[in-house]
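S.,

As promised, the 5-phosphoarabinonic acid run. Input:
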Amino acid sequence: MKNIEVSIKDVLGFVSREQIDALRDEAIGGLTKLTDGSGLGNDFLGWVKLPGEISNELLDDINSTAKSLSENCDVVVAIGIGGSYLGAKAVIEAMSNPFDQPKVLFAGQNIGEDYLYNLMDYLKGKKFGIIVISKSGTTTEPAIAFRLLREQLESQLGREEASKRIVAVTDAARGALRTLADTEGYKTYVIPDNVGGRFSVLTPVGLLPIAVAGIDIKALVAGAREMMEKTLDGTSTDALTYAMTRNALYRSGKKTEILVDFYPALHFFAEWWKQLYGESEGKDNKGIYPSSVDFTTDLHSMGQWIQEGERTIFETVISVKTSKHELRIPSDESNLDGLNYIAGKRVDEVNKMAELGTRLAHVDGGVPNILIEIPEVSPAVLGQLIYFFEAACGISGYVLGVNPFNQPGVEAYKKNMFALLDKPGYEKESAAIRAKL
Ligand code: PA5
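Predicted complex:
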């Protein structure tokens, strides 16, 4: 299998090899904590060996459910938020032609009334199915979307037929969604107890919608498994290197990491990455702020800030070596746009020079640069990249000194929202918050 490669050459003018190597013991200690469970958050380490443990039977079962949904529906709506949304969205977007009619649409990742109205309007008269994904089964955003879409589906088909087009991905035994699924007889898949939302893309949470989109989930898992084996047996030290380097940069005052792509379809991969690192590391008043840009698009907007703004940032560039298709720039007799000097070149060749030119300019402008080269955007390579980032995230969180597997901070907004909405059980909070307004 073709491999991803990590280069830290362009950070060495900012932090020294010694500063990075000084974190090696902590990073190796972090990796050990992931494998022996001796660190904080050790009840959420199910993802560490997951790619080697997923059975072929489960993958076949997911593929057959996906096939039946796909054949019986014009479109399937995947309902979920956060870790129950971003992994599937990332892989589907990375592998899809954005100009094709999508097979999988998403809902429950916001509370946008117009978003939901427009989606329901689009679904009128269409054959649609629902994959509802929620570990807790009580998250407000997907619960609202599911209530609306289930009602629409039931009114289109009747309750019994609708239940054949709904698949629930949730906890094995607990929660509102489990109860409803069992009562209504929905096909269900289980989110393992020991896998947190942001690490769940390689469980049915991500795999089912990805399979419905026609993407090879066996190749995705195989890529992740290969990276898992190499990371855990020490053949690959890339996850350690990335974790050490970003912590060395953080300790030297580089507080923001920008994940950069020059490949538009990776936009949502960066969104997945932001959740992974943001929720894992941003706590105890610490943590690198993860942000992202799509170049060259954002060079025409954020490029100014990155080149000349406050020097507290570093970049991690995901560079795709080979694009899937070939397109050459035509020659033009009038040459009014002055482009004949690149006529005959592939578009990707120009993109690569933009990439190299940007990296050099940003390093010259004081922005350290970590380079992650991937051979292509394929399910196997995305699987490798997913596991690489997950492993590096766990290690990095331990080096930072936080529990990388909890997210206590996400409760604060929920508490206020419930109080403001007068949710039963929040009477005291309602009175307290009203007194503040
Ligand atoms: O990473 C997380 O834990 C969160 O992003 C959750 O995945 C998100 O809140 C959705 O939770 P649930 O699957 O319980 O609906």
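The mean pLDDT is 97. The chain is about 50% helix and 10% strand.

- D.
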